[in-house]
Write a structure and sequence with these properties.
heterodimer; A: 204 residues; alpha/beta; Rossmann fold; 5 helices; 28% strand; B: 304 residues; alpha+beta; Methane Monooxygenase Hydroxylase, Chain G, domain 1; Serine Threonine Protein Phosphatase 5, Tetratricopeptide repeat; Thrombin, subunit H; 7-stranded antiparallel sheet; 11 helices; 7 strands; binds guanosine-5'-diphosphate; binds magnesium ion
Chain lengths: 204, 304
């Protein structure tokens, strides 16, 4: 849940990167940390386990400066992908204001994408939120692998699989190379701030 | 495609999936490549190739096992624990509970024990200590802890009774045949009741009320009969829920009057969904600030 301090005109909101294991959530955050030095306001913290898998979450605080007279701070999180960490995913999702769903373009991960999106929907529902209403952006990651002859799904197919009903903004990307990372985050922050504006009318 | 190219591309895929930590996918591709190699008769280095692949498959199996059997919540560094506290808790109790939720039980217990000194947090801290003990040790440890508190003087009888009322059903549910002794002050009251004649009111047992994040009210009468509407819960204090309802929903709000009982409510909490009933305790229109014109509706949960 966004924290408002209307006297000081400060807003702190929470954006979560969601998606199946190994789809590139942590890599997205690492790229943001490396490339947006001016916006990054603190350390990126990753709590990892065996083989660099995110165990609990990654965390990175950023600041957007003043927008419409309000100082906007954003906490970026990722969730762990493995099935056994479902309770952590739920904890991290608590009070979320905006979501980036990172889908893996690898053909072999097709089903995992769909299962993860379903998991997101049901976790949101437990917090009384609808996946159709929450600010949500899709990223189709690992597009760079097409050049290496690895079978990827087409964007059209991914749209059909994941975004036919949701119809949210979506972007192809390569978190490893950094393409699409910035536009995805920016789109998500825009949707998030718009939704907070509808709800709380913070901008004058 | 030329068969050797096909094999090459399978191995290429397998290698990439391995590098990305997608072990089952990598294994599938190695197996497919291996099956294809078997079928070729005149291949110079066939045996060494097959051996190399089966070595890769074995090492993948080892890695998979490591990932799967790794601890689900290893002890974190102090820095990691501090981050969890600051991100997932607002007051000291929530911070300590957040540690427990992330499996950092030892540190959680230390912090909860410190909170026992605080009258405001004592009962909740006690219940959560019990919870942690059950998670890392056993129900017996939790029972021992209760007995220890019972023989000390940190808790009032009433506070301890609240902990007993929390722990006893857990013991019962586990099929353990043990009943916790009722704290002295509380027992006296019960005995007094047994002896008859004296009128007194039992203290209401403090029930565990879950965090409720939103509710769905199904109207059982009036204009909206049969319709379900969902509201976020903006504030909760025990069994009292406060909802801010937009002035745009005025027709809805008009249906709800002080004292009305709502007999079909769906409660959504982070860990469960359940049905129950509530009473409209208070309804006020907000007349200043950013929510001016909206309504604040307080509901008292009656049963869940
Ligand atoms: N080629 C390629 N690899 C990627 C990309 N994004 C992530 N990866 C790799 O995929 C693996 C898993 O990435 P990670 O960010 O840890 O995934 P997470 O589980 O979603 O946090 C790592 O080996 C990354 O290097 C990408 O855009 N292209
Ligand atoms: Mg990760």
């Amino acid at each position: 849940m966004a924290i408002f301090n209307l006297k000081k005109r400060e807003i702190e909101c929470k954006v979560v990167y969601y998606g199946p294991g190994r789809c590139g959530k942590t890599t997205n955050l690492e790229y943001v940390f490396k490339s947006y030095k001016k916006q990054v306001t603190g350390e990126m913290v990753s709590i990892n386990t065996e083989g660099d898998r995110t165990l609990f979450f990654d965390f990175l605080p950023i600041g957007l400066g003043k927008i419409k007279g309000c100082d906007i701070r954003v906490q970026l999180y990722t969730v762990p992908g493995q099935v056994k960490y479902s309770s952590t995913r739920k904890l991290v999702l608590r009070g979320v204001d905006g979501i980036v769903f990172v889908a893996d373009s690898l053909e072999v991960r097709r089903e995992k994408n769909m299962i993860s999106l379903k998991d997101l929907q049901s976790n949101l529902k437990e917090y009384g939120k609808s996946i159709f209403k929450v600010p949500l952006i899709m990223q189709y990651n690992k597009r760079d692998l097409a050049d290496e002859g690895i079978p990827l799904m087409s964007i059209e197919q991914m749209e059909r699989d994941l975004n036919r009903q949701l119809k949210v903004p979506s972007f192809p990307g390569s978190a490893m190379k950094g393409t699409g990372v910035g536009v995805t985050l920016k789109a998500c922050l825009m949707e998030t701030l718009k939704s907070l504006q509808r709800e709380f009318k913070w901008a004058k | 495609m030329d068969i050797s190219l096909q094999i090459k591309s399978l191995l290429n895929e397998a290698e990439l999936y391995r590098a990305q930590g997608l072990f089952p996918e990598a294994k599938d591709k190695y197996h497919a490549a291996s099956a294809m190699i078997h079928k070729i008769d005149k291949l110079k280095n066939k045996d060494s190739l097959l051996k190399a692949i089966s070595g890769k498959i074995q090492s993948l199996e080892k890695k998979t096992e490591k990932v799967e059997t790794g601890p689900t919540s290893p002890e974190l560094s102090e820095k990691g624990q501090n981050l969890i506290k600051s991100l997932f808790g607002e007051n000291d109790l929530q911070k300590a509970v957040a540690l427990a939720k992330f499996g950092q039980f030892e540190r959680a217990i230390t912090e909860l024990e410190a909170l026992l000194k605080d009258d405001v947090y004592r009962v909740d801290a006690g219940k959560n200590i019990i919870r942690c003990k059950m998670a890392i040790a056993s129900v017996d440890d939790a029972i021992d802890q209760y007995h220890q508190w019972l023989s000390g003087d940190l808790f009032t009888g009433h506070q301890l009774e609240s902990i007993r009322a929390y722990l006893q059903p857990i013991i019962d549910r586990k099929g353990i045949d043990k009943s916790l002794p009722v704290p002295v002050g509380e027992r006296d009251e019960i005995n007094a009741a047994d002896s008859g004649g004296i009128e007194f009111s039992m203290p209401e047992p403090e029930e565990e009320i879950l965090d409720i994040t939103s509710i769905g009210i199904t109207f059982t009468s009036g204009t909206f009969k049969g319709k379900m509407v969902e509201f976020d819960v903006n504030f909760q204090s025990g069994g009292m829920l406060s909802l801010i309802i937009s002035k745009n929903d005025k027709t809805l709000i008009d249906e709800l009057k002080n004292g009305d009982s709502l007999d079909d409510i769906q409660f959504y909490s982070p860990i469960a969904m359940f049905k129950g009933t509530a009473v409209v305790a208070n309804k006020t229109q907000i007349n200043s600030g950013p929510k001016q014109g909206d309504f604040c509706l307080d509901l008292k949960i009656k049963s869940t």
